[in-house]
Amino acid sequence: MGNIIEVKSLEKIFANKSAIESVDFTVKKGEIFGFLGPSGSGKTTTIKILTGQLNPTSGMAKVFGEPVSKLKNPEYRQRFGVLTDNSGLYSRLSIYDNLKLYCKLYDAPLSKIDEVLAIVNLNEAKLKKVSTLSKGMMQRVTLARALIHEPELLFLDEPTSALDPTNSLHIHEGLRALNAKGTTIFLTTHDMQEADTLCDRIAFLNRGKIQLLDTPNKLKQSYTNSTMTVELTSGEKVTLPTGADGAHELFAYMKAEEIVTIHSNEPTLGEVFVQVTGRKLA
Amino acid sequence: MMFSLRRVNAIFQKDYKEFSRNMAVSSVIFMPPILAAIYGRMGIDSIESHYLIINMTFAMITAYVQCCLIAEEKEKNTLRGLMLSPATTGEILSGKSLLSFLLTGVVIVISAFLSEYKPENITVVAIAIILSSFFYIGLGTLLGLFAKSVMEASVLVIPAMILFSFGSFITKLAVQYPILKVANYLPNIQLIELATEVENGAHFGDVLSQLAGIIIWVMIIWLLTVVTYRKRMVD
Ligand SMILES: Nc1ncnc2c1ncn2[C@@H]1O[C@H](COP(=O)(O)OP(=O)(O)O)[C@@H](O)[C@H]1O
Ligand SMILES: [Mg+2]
Question: What is the ipTM of this complex?
């Protein structure tokens, strides 16, 4: 499968202050690729460059095999959808009217409106005026809007940052379903759980640099200390190596029927992030 | 590249809905007809008074409303969404201009009716007014692109309003201060000159220089506007 995004030595400097430096990565067609990093690490800057909203200072960025400067071409604009924190809505209009405009701009049938509203769980509210919506609801409308023309590539900048857990989960499901139908998703987040459950591969972004890039499992495995914690009926907790060394002891506990729970001690992505960067997320 | 009227119309309909729900801005459309009605009742019927109303329409409706429409798209971060869509610069700017254009037409026709302005040659005057409205729409768009908010837009548009609505006073001052003669080339002055000639029996062929003057203004302002718009597409 081909690469839908290719980035090489990408750099952006704002008035002497660099936002991203020597960033390299590729996103394969069909994957969900996550950019995980604390605020100010350069996530939005990267998305803006990739969608042609910002010119890079140096380096190469290609989307659909073409340099990002080509994205001004309407043909390419039809192929991607964007949600960023500066995506605005028309506050005097209803959700429906907001989406109707975008249906027409993208030549999508009006029947798509109900379809995308279902993904973000907003069908009930579709006639509500945008100015009366909560921040989370607005975020869901902008997400719906980014999906309306069934883009092959979706750029989502912290799509669930203003949402409660229930709605986040609902949207994760929707995104997985879109991905299963072939949509490639480039997602930024500072929520490691979101990155863990949703992404096929994750890049750790810290102070404008990618510090690690791999699948969530590999990232966690490479930082595991290979132990497990066994909780016994006595209330005691014993830490055992996961290898052959621990087998005898574990077997003994099992035979004696003393085990209440067993937990592998793999780190969470958040812990890996702290280990790698020395910084906390969020 | 295809020019999609569907997109232009979608932007226009959106603007119309928003505008009709925004009394703070939309109420300005009543000002010129009110003044026109007063003039009509008082029996004031001079070319200067008719064009005071028409130029007021250009300043308060064409340029000001247009400026607010564009500035609001910037303030609410919605312009970026339009720019990122497959709509072309031409489609977006046409769609964003249509409402101001139609409002201008309606207000000028109603005001002319109320103040009883009946041009000797309505075709020539109509062409000149339509061309002038293109200039003021371009001016409003340009100022709107510079403003960061509707508030800022309202301030930015004031000098333009003064220059273009009271332009005819400047020509009178120019008799004393020759340096102000440049003002004679302003599009509003060209329009009044044209209208005066028409009342004196001029035909299409007699006012070509004034029409050309207005067209040059239209081209200059839209060139600046499109260049500025394109710059705004990237941060
Ligand atoms: N327009 C700008 N002008 C100056 N500095 C900017 C601008 N946009 C972003 N930055 C800086 O670039 C860095 C990265 O920002 P950003 O990409 O928004 O991070 P994130 O989205 O990960 O929170 C930050 O230090 C931010 O202050
Ligand atoms: Mg950001």
Answer: 0.90
Task: For residues A145 and A246, state if they share a domain.
Answer: no
Count of the separate structural domains present in chain A:
2
Nearest to A183 by CA among A160, A153, A158, A142: A153
Contacts of A129 (CB under 8 A, 6+ apart): A91, A92, A93, A94
Q: What is the pLDDT of residue A275?
A: 78
Task: Say which CATH number the domain at A209 has.
Answer: 3.40.50.300
B35 torsion bin: left (phi>0), alpha (psi -120 to 50), beta (else): alpha
- On whether both A101 and A213 belong to a single domain, the answer is yes
Q: Which domain holds residue A250?
A: 225-265
Residues A42, A20 contacting (CB under 8 angstroms): yes
For ligand 1, mutation pick of A11, A13, A17, A84 (most atoms within 8 Å of CB): A17
Last residue of a domain, one of A220, A255, A276: A220
Locate B72 and state its tokens. Answer: 């609001």
Same domain, A29 and A115: yes
Over residues A243-272, mean pLDDT:
84
pLDDT in tens, A197-208: 999 999 999 989
Residues 6+ apart with CB under 8 A from A140: A120, A121, A122, A163, A167, A171
Q: Are residues A250 and A214 in the same domain?
A: no
One domain, residues A185 and A261: no
The pTM of the full predicted model, rounded to 2 decimals, is 0.89
Q: How far apart are CA B189 and CA B195, in angstroms?
A: 10
| Cβ <8 Å between A89 and B18 | no
- Chain B residues whose CB is inside 8 A of the A100 CB are 10
> Does the pLDDT of residue B37 top 60, yes or no?
yes
Tell me how far apart the alpha carbons of residues B185 and B210 are, in angstroms, rounded to a whole number. 9
Residue A271 falls within a domain, yes or no?
Answer: no
A273 lies in some domain: no
User: A185-221: buried (b, 16+ CB within 10 Å) or exposed (e) per residue?
Assistant: bbbbbbbbebbbebbebbbbbbbbbbbbbeebeebbe
Q: Are A134 and A236 part of one and the same domain?
A: no
- Whether the CB of B18 is below 8 Å from some CB of chain A: the reply is yes
Name which of B25, B70, B84, B230 to mutate to probe chain A: the one with the most chain A Cβ atoms within 10 A of its Cβ.
Answer: B84
